[in-house]
């Protein structure tokens, strides 16, 4: 049954011709690195992402991983020259410009455009912002430390649950959705959490160390700086998390992903001017409304004879926090977002006009279509220009437009449903190439979750073939449910039939 599922997926991919590939690795319960291979191709109803297999991996070098991928594609009849996209994380062995996996695959197929995983890029944006200043790092250490302190004791955790509707969460180095949940729970349960800490600090039945820790966390929550960081990060992480969830959709298109990332720039720029708003929200949690002044005397720099006193920086605690922590954090977020978005500029510029096709002039369509043909000369013909001009006029006559789909997917479905592929063959090919581009490797991450279920501690000695077949049937259960089991039963009966003794 598992082999039948894999054969069906491979058959669909060969019929679709163009595909994108994504690989990632993780160690399983038996400490064997498993390399997952996921491909994306376009069916008449739209793009799909399919898991193909887990393959054991001995080394993490780009050459070794690329050879595993290329050998698997060759053995299963998938021509690498039809690969039009590849999406990996931002690790150097994967994304290296000269010696990474994407560079090696690109030597085999020059049209295999590398698209860094949008979700991983978004995580790196947040990670770089947190590490940009000591104030941000201390804040998230406080959030994680508060969770550890309250969760390591069932008594403390129960006191917290009795008062708060949202429980605190621990932090993950890679999953920023957990940071969003953790900060949201802290903001919404601020007063209740502080009351629990004060009760623990005053409880004489608790150990001295426990009382001291509770008192320390309560003092941190009584600092205005902590409250401002919590309210600001709550808004920012909410937007980052919502965007990340949308990017994990297997059907999301590159233009949509790029637009979502660009919208975050405006959102964070808006947050840059909202310091006063966050401060007022923080004062509601910390009524004294005062920033923590420096307790130790600052170092006085020796001035040269030609320097005046005007060069000295005399900032209030509020100005110091805003300038050295808050604005640094926001500016780093903006800089990292703009830096990560540059990785998608070329491919987005090449195909981006398709979503605005009906609003472009004939001259604009001509210029952009010629650029698309020059990018894929082996796939598209010069007649694409005339086809797109006619197709744009045809699309303007269509009334029904789905708000739940991208413009490119609506166009492709229209071509398929009306059997217009022969009328607009190059348009159909261009849309297929674009829609097969993978923008994240979230499907690969989901396969790791299934790997942990299929190959658990009680089945750690499972053979690779059995692991792959069980994982295939579980992950691609929709394909399995659509198959006719009659042929599979007959094949199984013939394969296992015993010889008759005469």
Describe the structure.
- Keywords: Coiled coil.
- This protein has 502 residues and is an alpha/beta fold.
- The chain has three domains: 2-117 and 441-496, Ribonuclease H-like superfamily/Ribonuclease H (Nucleotidyltransferase, domain 5, 2-Layer Sandwich); 122-293 and 315-343, no CATH class; 360-435, no CATH class.
- Helices cover 60% and strands 8% of the residues.
- It is built from 23 helices and five strands.
- The protein has helices spanning 2-16, 62-75, 92-95, 101-108, 118-130, 134-151, 154-163, 176-188, 190-202, 208-221, 224-247, 254-272, 275-285, 317-341, 345-351, 362-375, 384-396, 407-417, 425-435, 442-454, 464-475, 477-481, 485-496; strands at 19-27, 33-43, 46-57, 83-86, 113-114.
- A five-stranded mixed β-sheet has the order 3-2-1-4-5, with helices on both faces.
- Helix 2 (62-75) crosses helix 4 and helix 5 runs antiparallel to helix 14.
- It is globular.
- The two termini are 33 Å apart.
Q: What structural class is derived from the secondary structure elements?
A: alpha/beta
Order of strands side by side in the largest beta sheet? 3-2-1-4-5
Number of strands: 5
H/I helix tally = 23
Radius of gyration: 28 Å
Order of helices and strands: HEEEHEHHEHHHHHHHHHHHHHHHHHHH
Helix content: 55-70%
What does the average pLDDT come to? 88
Shape: globular
Determine the N-to-C terminus distance. Answer: 33 Å
Q: Spans of 5+ residues with little confidence (pLDDT < 50)?
A: none
> What's the main sheet like?
5 strands, mixed
The total number of structural domains is 3
Q: Strand content of the residues, in percent?
A: 5-15%
């Amino acid at each position: 049954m598992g082999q039948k599922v894999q054969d069906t997926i491979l058959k669909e991919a060969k019929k679709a011709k163009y595909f994108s590939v994504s690989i990632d690795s993780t160690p399983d319960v038996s400490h064997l690195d498993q390399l997952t291979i996921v491909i994306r191709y376009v069916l008449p109803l739209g793009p799909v992402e399919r898991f193909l297999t887990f393959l054991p991996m001995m080394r993490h070098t780009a050459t070794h991983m690329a050879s595993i991928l290329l050998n698997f594609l060759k053995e299963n009849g998938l021509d690498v020259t039809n690969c039009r996209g590849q999406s990996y994380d931002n690790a150097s062995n994967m994304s290296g410009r000269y010696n990474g996996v994407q560079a090696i695959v690109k030597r085999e197929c020059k049209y295999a455009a590398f698209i860094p995983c949008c979700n991983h890029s978004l995580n790196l944006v947040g990670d770089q912002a947190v590490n940009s200043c000591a104030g941000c790092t201390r804040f998230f250490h406080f959030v994680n430390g508060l969770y550890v302190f309250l969760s390591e004791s069932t008594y403390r955790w129960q006191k917290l649950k009795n008062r708060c509707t949202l429980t605190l969460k621990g932090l993950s180095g890679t999953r920023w959705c957990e940071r969003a949940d953790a900060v949201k729970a802290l903001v919404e349960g601020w007063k209740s959490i502080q009351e629990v800490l004060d009760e623990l600090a005053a409880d004489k039945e608790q150990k001295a160390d426990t009382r001291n820790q509770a008192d320390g966390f309560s003092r941190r929550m009584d600092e205005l700086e902590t409250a401002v960081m919590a309210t600001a990060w709550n808004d920012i992480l909410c937007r980052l998390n919502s965007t990340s969830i949308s990017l994990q959709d297997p059907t999301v298109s590159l233009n949509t992903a790029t637009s979502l990332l660009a919208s975050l720039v405006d959102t964070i720029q808006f947050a840059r001017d909202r310091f006063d708003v966050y401060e007022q929200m923080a004062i509601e949690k910390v009524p004294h409304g005062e920033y923590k002044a420096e307790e130790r005397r600052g170092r006085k720099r020796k001035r040269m004879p030609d320097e005046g006193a005007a060069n000295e920086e005399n900032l209030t605690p509020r100005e110091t926090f805003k300038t050295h922590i808050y604005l640094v954090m926001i500016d780093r977020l903006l800089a990292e977002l703009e830096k990560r978005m540059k990785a998608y500029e070329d491919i987005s510029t090449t195909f981006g006009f398709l979503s605005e096709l009906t609003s472009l002039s004939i001259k604009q369509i001509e210029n952009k279509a010629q650029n698309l043909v020059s990018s894929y000369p082996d796939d598209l013909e010069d007649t694409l220009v005339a086809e797109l001009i006619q197709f744009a006029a045809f699309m303007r006559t269509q009334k029904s437009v789905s708000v739940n789909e991208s413009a490119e997917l609506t166009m492709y479905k229209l071509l398929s449903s009306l059997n217009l592929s022969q009328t607009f063959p190059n348009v159909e090919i261009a849309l297929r190439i674009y829609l097969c581009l993978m923008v994240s490797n979230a499907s690969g991450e989901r396969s790791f979750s299934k790997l942990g279920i299929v190959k658990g501690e009680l089945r750690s000695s499972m053979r690779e073939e059995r692991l792959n077949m069980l994982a295939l049937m579980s992950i691609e259960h929709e394909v399995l449910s659509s198959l006719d089991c009659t042929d599979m039963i007959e094949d199984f009966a013939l394969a296992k039939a015993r010889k008759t003794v005469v």
